[in-house]
Amino acid sequence: MSRSAHPAGPRHADVLPEGHYTAPATDLNVLDEKVWSRTVTRDANGALTVGGIEVARLAEEFGTPAYFLDESDFRARCRAWADAFGPGADVFYAGKAFLSRAVVRWLQEEGLNLDVCSGGELTTALDAGMPAERIAFHGNNKTVAEIERAVEAGVGRIVLDSFQEIVRVAHIAQSRGLRQRVQIRVTVGVEAHTHEFIATAHEDQKFGIALAGGQAAEAVRRALTLDGLELIGIHSHIGSQIFDMAGFEVSARRVVQLLAEVRDEHGVELPEIDLGGGLGIAYTSEDDPREPHEIAKALTDIVTRECESANLSTPRISVEPGRAIVGPTAFTLYEVGTIKPLEGLRTYVSVDGGMSDNIRTALYDAEYSVALVSRSSDAEPMLVRVVGKHCESGDIVVKDAFLPADLAPGDLIAVPATGAYCRSMASNYNHALRPPVVAVRDGEARVIVRRETEEDLLRLDVG
Ligand SMILES: *Cc1c(COP(=O)(O)O)cnc(C)c1O
């Protein structure tokens, strides 16, 4: 999401600067394959199809709004990450991006591991049969009950996030006669987003234990003395939607430096280093994400080089992509309800969902693309803002985009790249019914998370 280069100009302009919002040179009917999942295409009539099924048929069968997830694309992305890093490294899918039992089964079949960060995510993973040793448990405030369940289930690693948690996990494991494999999450003084990273001396954030001031070294010291813990490595996660590898370079260098200090002080070489997730995807045509093999090579080279210069043997690397796997695999399908042209401003297009199924625009000022998908159109492009049906003027799905000027109520429009952090962050605001997730593959569509019903709402309301 390159802000400065966005073709639609200033992001907060309420009044359009003259000549600033120029229509795209490309044909609006052409789908940019960067932002759409792999099996998405337009058929001879101009209607969008995914996995061989036309969207109008999907809308009829499953209703709108709904998320359609391209299963073969999801699986291909899993394989691309696993192949890129090879058997000498581990790929953990970050379940918080989107998790369901079907997803857990796909991950198992494609050889990936899984990050969870709550009891609910852990339950979903175990229920769908993910072997506990392939699960990593994260979070800055895991409850005692969550830690107990994770330890008893035998999760492969718990990522320790505070001094209190070091003691808590050690105690819980030891009192059961167990030794829990753990990593310590450190904050390396790097924050990376999109095209920049910021290196800071001190971290002002809730996650991890700071390298600065010797905090992380002290955490290692304590963890090494506790019988309930087997310290296997250091973890760092530096941001989200990152395209520039430079932040990882600084982070890896600082983590390796800690490994060298640990070796010097304790005579142990910790065997693992986890570089976290945060790799960027294309939300709009402006974004140019890297392929997994390029990322794997860059990260492996950085760690190898830093270890060589610190005279350490290269640790086993793990990464935790969430968005980069599931993000591009799904789109949200909406039906257009009302269209309000505002003279000299833009046209507001209201859809049957909104901030309850995609909070990212309101929360992060995220950018998305949109396309008319129930048909093609040769009409002129018009500048639109796609908004939801909620009682908030900030209920925006796509802030600035172009759709054909003959757009009409009843048309289907789709927002691509909504696989990550949309359904998983969905809410019931205005008692909206959270949309279903439908997996589409080889001409077949199957609900993997069903649509909420008004009965579901009333069932929770026990007053
Ligand atoms: C959120 C998170 C991830 C995944 O981030 P993406 O941007 O989805 O790749 C990975 N690791 C940790 C520790 C996280 O908190």
Write a brief caption for the model.
By secondary structure, this protein is α/β, with parallel strands linked by helices. The protein is 28% helix and 25% strand.
Would you mind describing this structure in some detail?
The protein has 463 residues and is of the alpha/beta class. It has 2 domains: 41-70 and 328-460, Lyase, Ornithine Decarboxylase, Chain A, domain 1 (Beta Barrel); 138-321, Alanine racemase (TIM Barrel, Alpha-Beta Barrel). Helices cover 28% and strands 25% of the residues. The chain is built from 12 helices and 24 strands. Strands 4, 17, 18, 19, 20, 21, 22, 23 and 24 form a 9-stranded mixed beta sheet that branches. An 8-stranded parallel beta barrel has the order 5-6-7-8-9-13-15-16, surrounded by 7 helices. Strands 1-2-3 form a 3-stranded antiparallel beta sheet. Strand 23 and strand 24 form a beta hairpin. Helix 5 crosses helix 6 (163-174), helix 7 crosses helix 8 (246-266) and helix 8 (246-266) packs parallel to helix 9. The two termini are 45 Å apart. The model is unreliable at 1-14 (pLDDT under 50). Pyridoxal-5'-phosphate binds at residues 94, 96-97, 115, 138, 237, 240, 276-279, 320-324, 420.
